[in-house]
Fold this protein.
Amino acid sequence: MFSFKFMPANVTTSHKIIIISVTTGVALLGILASYLSRRKIRPTRNARLRAYASGRRTRNSIRSPNDAMSTAGSRASARSVSPGGSVYTTTDIVSYASGSTRGGGPSGEPAVPLSPQQLGVMGMEKLEDVISIWEDALAAHSLGNSSGHPEDAEFFREIQNLLEIAYGLQEQSELLFLDERSCLFRTTNDDDQNYADANFDSAESFASALDQIADLREFEDFEHEHEEEIEHPLYINTVRGMEQNPIPCRNIRSDLVHVPSDNEYLAKLHCIRLAFHHMFRDQNVSKWVADTGRQILTDLLCLNDKDPKDFIIGYERMLAFMQEPYGWQQAELELSERGVKAMTFYDIVLDFIILDAFKDLESPPGSVMAVVNNRFLSNGFKETALATAVWSVVRAKKRMLKYSDGFMAYFYQITEQISPVMCWGFFGNDENLKEVCHYFRTEVVDFLSDIFNFQKVRYTTVEELSEDILRLMKQRASNIQIKFSA
């Protein structure tokens, strides 16, 4: 019977069994290691994820069907830079997003539903396995087929194209499920949103990291000008022609009409002049403006218990004078000497007559204020004294006129009737009349602000601008008439 002669005699049987088992195990491990060393070592899933986190991902590519698999250049990693400056690797984000990716809860409890990020990461893991297998297939084909048959080359190209598609899909999934600023990942970091927004300028843009997309803020000025050109072509054309043809103006009233720059005021003024010129080509509009002006001033006189007869006579004489060719030419001559640059409703009525009158009311003569502020005089006497002072100023101006039967003579005839009422309304003690006069001034100034406002009128064509101005004029006139009749 076979016996273990090589062992000492004093070794027991149980020790002999242990020694033989250990020796046999070591031999088997050596044989297995020798066998496995001859097999191709393939990276595991964790190793590939570590490759993501290291900032480079090595992909296999084939230079020719006869070459073995070689290492290609590194591509953009799945590493994402947080807006705050910290770096999140793919492994970190996977561990955060996946959590318990299998969704199993403790025994006896229902499984927790997986989030979109977790499901996406699970899909990426499966895709990683698929890509690894396809890479092995490509390597096996390249190493085992060196005959150079057309079929082999075709298979090589097709599987390489398939891998390129898979690599692209892998990149897209990384950007969606692993990038810290993607729409899905951002929803899990609401607490950090304010901090991220404050530091976003210092971080790499998600879009520019992909396609080097230009910063759209570079085109904001161009887009703004382009939008203005589309929305306000009449205004833009005027601005372009201002350098060659400067726009004349008697007074620049940018502050009054709330226009940010003098150049914008001048360009809009030119457009408004064209619109008023177009508007008064319609005889119905001219008649409506004349009748409305007469009615408003008549109501103002009546509010102060004044007889409007002399005013109406002077008003009708001035209208008849302006309708004559000689009268229009005479008015143009007189007004040009006073700085009026264009014969339009805006330049003559709104700017020269009304706005100048409001400006004079802001700084009345000292003699007028002395009468108003004298507390020893009754209100009736103050009003009479104020009217006398205004009449004396107006009549002194009439005596100095170069043309005694011209436009300014008719204008002063109307002013003799209206100015005393306006002065008493602004400076007197009649609260009702004061409220009406201030309301009248507010409506006129607001109307002027509206027609210089891009949001209230259309600077597209002369016709459309004319329509909008007329609409606003009718609206303001209606408001004044309602206030006067209240």
In short: The chain has 20 helices and four strands.
